[in-house]
Amino acid sequence: MKALITTLFLICSITLSAQSNQFAGAYSRSLSEEGKHIIEYKLTLNQDGTFVFHSYSKLQGGTPPEENKYGKGKWSVKDNMITFSANKKEDFDEKYTLDFNNSTARFVAKNPRDKSDKVVKTKLQFLESEINWMRRIDVFRI
């Protein structure tokens, strides 16, 4: 009986770690207008449940003209919805100032059962965030 319970526990933990592996990785988005504006977003979801985010913008005539913003914290997944959180004491300092608490994103990928030629880029689509400009932003898997 103990062996059966141990085996079931092992199978469940392997399944859970395999699910987080499908979400972990690097995501990016670059918006630019030749010679005028550059906006780049880079998000890395680590397999240990942590994340790092970097936003770079260079806007012609902007104040300031060039800006870097950073955020980090933890992420978790439930039903293709990724929830981000940040600990005020551990994840914030002079460099990491973006607060990802209460931010959620939907993981979008082609269904493995879909055998059509339709191309679906794997992405995270931010649905909610206290960072106003993060709402409705899509970042694509690299």
UniProtKB/TrEMBL annotation:
Species for this entry: Flavobacterium panici
This protein's record includes keyword Transferase: no
Gene3D superfamilies: 2.40.128.300
Classification via InterPro entries: Cu-R_lipoprotein_NlpE (IPR007298), NlpE_N_sf (IPR043176)
Coiled-coil residue spans: none
Transmembrane segments: none
Key words, A-Z: Signal
Annotated signal peptide: 1-18
Protein's name in the database: NlpE N-terminal domain-containing protein
Domain of life: Bacteria
